[in-house]
Design goal:
Layout: H1 2-65, H2 71-81, H3 83-95, E1 129-131, E2 140-141, H4 143-147, E3 152-157, H5 161-180, E4 186-191, H6 206-212, E5 216-220, E6 238-244, E7 247-254, H7 263-272, H8 277-284
Parallel strand pairs: 3-4, 4-5
Antiparallel strand pairs: 1-2, 1-5, 3-6, 6-7
Helix pairs in contact: 1-2, 5-6
Length: 297
């Protein structure tokens, strides 16, 4: 009798252990299946969202092509329809720290630097340009005379799309500096091309640049070469000339242009307006740089 009882106890124990193991395996399988379903739902959701964005862009693009809405209105519609995506992008931009570096360190160590435009110490020579957008559109003007000996930044810009779009970031920085500084900085953007039509695809950008801190956007009468007396290198995308009291203080050449404002150019701006680089860097990193009202000059 004792033997039978012992056998029965062992059988029950093994049975319970097997049942527990089966239960554990069942739970594990269920958890794996649930995780798989969640992952599949997530991937399916991402695909659906991508498809929805693509379909929306296609429809809005058709409206733009038909002339029923502007590109700016199309952008507003997209941001409204996909607010979370737009918010994430803005948060990324806002977290990016802007640096302001010593201008004299630009191209330091470069064996064969490219020279374009007047060099430090040289006097700025007046030149003629034609207003391209805004109140001065189609008017003949002299950017040097318009600055009236104020600290001055002249950007000579070719028709390269990437570097033109990169002016957004520069204009945002100019807006922040203008809000904080007591010194007026006169900024001219001079477009260089043998055909003004080359800049028409970017015309929607220019009003924003004027709002954010660029005073003059004009087209060089001399085409891609730019003002003859300035000795610009036609192979480079952007040449930045910074001057004070009518004389060049800094010159920066960006052969390929840039998506963001160059830290050394920002350092040069700090120099000609008489501010410490650390101060200007603090200004540029106070919250967002876009959408601010310019103080009236």
């Amino acid at each position: 009798m004792k033997i039978l009882t012992l056998i029965l106890a062992i059988t029950i124990a093994f049975g319970s252990s097997a049942m527990a193991q089966n239960n554990d395996e069942g739970r594990a399988r269920a958890e794996r299946a649930e995780r798989g379903e969640r992952a599949e739902r997530g991937e399916r959701g991402e695909r659906d969202e991508r498809d929805a964005r693509a379909a929306f862009r296609e429809k809005v693009g058709a409206l733009v092509e038909a002339g029923k809405i502007s590109r700016e209105e199309a952008g507003d519609l997209y941001r409204t329809a996909f607010q979370e995506r737009s918010r994430t992008r803005r948060q990324y931009e806002n977290k990016r720290v802007k640096e302001v570096k010593a201008p004299e360190l630009f191209n330091k160590g470069v064996q064969n630097p490219i020279f374009s435009g007047p060099q430090p110490g040289e006097k700025l020579v007046s030149f003629q340009a034609v207003g391209f957008v805004g109140e001065l559109e189609e008017q003949m003007l002299d950017p040097i005379a318009m600055a009236n000996n104020l600290p001055q930044l002249i950007v000579f810009q070719d028709d390269g799309g990437a570097s033109i779009r990169g002016l957004y970031d520069l204009s945002g920085s100019l807006s922040s500096i203008d809000l904080q500084s007591d010194v007026d900085l006169h900024v001219s953007l001079i477009l260089l091309s043998d055909d003004p039509v080359a800049f028409e695809p970017y015309s929607r950008i220019f009003p924003t640049l004027l709002k954010n801190g660029i005073d003059v956007i004009a087209f060089s009468k001399e085409g891609r070469e730019g003002p003859g007396a300035y000795g610009l290198d036609r192979t480079v995308s952007q040449t930045f000339v910074l001057a004070k009291d009518g004389k060049v203080v800094h010159n920066f050449v960006l052969p390929q242009g840039g998506v963001y404002a160059d830290p050394h150019v920002l350092g040069g701006i700090a120099d000609i307006i008489g501010e410490k680089r650390e101060t200007v860097q603090a200004w540029l990193n106070q919250g967002t740089t876009g959408g601010r009202e310019m103080r009236r000059r």
